[in-house]
Amino acid sequence: MITRSFVLNYKQVDFKVENMNETSYVVVFPTIFSKNKIPQLISNIKKILKIKNQEFKSVKRDGEIILVDANDPVFASSAINMLFGIQEVAIARQKKNDYQEIVSEITSVGGNLLLKGEKFLVKVEGISKGFLVKDVEIAATSSIIEKKSKLGAHPGTEQDYDKLLYTYLTKNNAYICIFSDKGKGGIPYQSQSEKTICAVYDELSAVSCYETIKQGYDTKVIVCYRQKSELMNLAKTLNQIIPRLVQEKIELEFFHLKINPKGVKNYLTYVNSVVEIMLQSSIKRVSLAISPQIFSSDFLDNALKLVFSKKKIPLVPLAGVDTNLFDEAKEIGLERNIKKLENIAAISSDEIPVFVKKEVEKALKTKKVISIQAGPNNVHDILDSLE
């Protein structure tokens, strides 16, 4: 597994790939929790490439990794890296699992990637055949120093290097990486076959929905809003969530829940009212955007009991998520809304206000179902559909 990746922007990768005449592949490294779910991950990769209009010849398994032969590996790797269940995505050259071929290819790739005076580290992992991976690392390092002496590049250490030259070995093949990028973690979408409902109504609930999908649940998304002025931000957030659902067509339900947006008590009332709206669905599993690190245990217990009382099963995807909450908020485009998320995180109240029955009943009557074709115009399509 790639332990640390070097980062090139996509223009640089394009340049590097174009300057290497041989075919480059997209190599997908599943997370440790996805290694027993590779068929589902392969299915999701095919779907996202189709949705993003990326042509490919094949998506197949090679040992514990997935090999994608795409027409444009740069844009294909970018699309694939929106999925969950992935530890790393790389663009790599494929060679036979042969000592001499591997050393030669690492030397060639290193010569194309290294800049003058850079410190590099050769790292080889996987299944070796008749040789030790350490021997390949030493031989390739020596070869780069000798054949690329004009570069002035020199070996670094595990703790100190500018560029990682990473190679992964399967039973029959070696994959010499040109570029690699960290994945989103989690497990593949729909690994958990159970349908789950979640609501997006603010920054915290958006991260909770993201986590629900990341944990593999087949997720139905509803949207609640108090004022029409909230719709633009909600649409932008949904635009970041929609691709993770790996569907060409997404159905969303909107509810106008008129509860005063000011004050902690009103916010807690709003949260409980949203839970009540979700409980009207026939879906058995209900995802609660209630973090035990933010809300009181009594408030969480009350929500859990409410779900159980309807003979449904509650999920708390934010349980155990601490400061990663803010990283995931940035992942779904909420950089400018971090202050709002911090304000929610600072809530201090032991109150358990009940949902407003009258307003919930009114909100249910405002239900509007819209269908969105996943694509570049999601935000406008959502807002236009609500006009």
Name its key features:
single chain; 387 residues; alpha/beta; VC0802-like; Rossmann fold; 8-stranded mixed beta sheet; 26% strand; Thiamine biosynthesis ATP pyrophosphatase-like protein; tRNA_sulfurtransferase_ThiI
Output the CATH class name of the largest domain: Alpha Beta
The order of strands across the largest sheet is 2-3-1-4-8-7-5-6
Q: Please, how many domains?
A: 2
Percentage of residues in helical conformation: 25-40%
Strand content: 25-35%
Short description:
This protein has 387 residues and is an alpha/beta fold. 37% of the residues lie in helices and 26% in strands.
Explained architecture:
It comes from Nitrosopumilus maritimus (strain SCM1). This is Thiamine biosynthesis ATP pyrophosphatase-like protein. InterPro entries: tRNA_sulfurtransferase_ThiI. The protein has 387 residues and is α/β, with parallel strands linked by helices. It folds into two domains: 10-185, VC0802-like (2-Layer Sandwich); 192-385, 3-Layer(aba) Sandwich (Rossmann fold), CATH 3.40.50. Helices cover 37% and strands 26% of the residues. It has 13 helices and 14 strands. It has helices at residues 10-18, 38-51, 73-80, 99-113, 133-147, 203-214, 231-241, 264-278, 297-309, 324-331, 338-345, 357-365, 378-385, and strands spanning 24-30, 56-62, 65-70, 86-96, 119-126, 154-155, 163-169, 173-185, 192-200, 217-225, 249-256, 285-287, 313-315, 368-373. The strands form two sheets. It has an eight-stranded mixed beta sheet with strand order 2-3-1-4-8-7-5-6. Strand 2 and strand 3 form a beta hairpin. Helix 4 crosses helix 5, helix 7 (231-241) crosses helix 13 and helix 8 crosses helix 12 (357-365). It is elongated and about 75 Å long. Mean pLDDT is 90; it is low at 2-12.
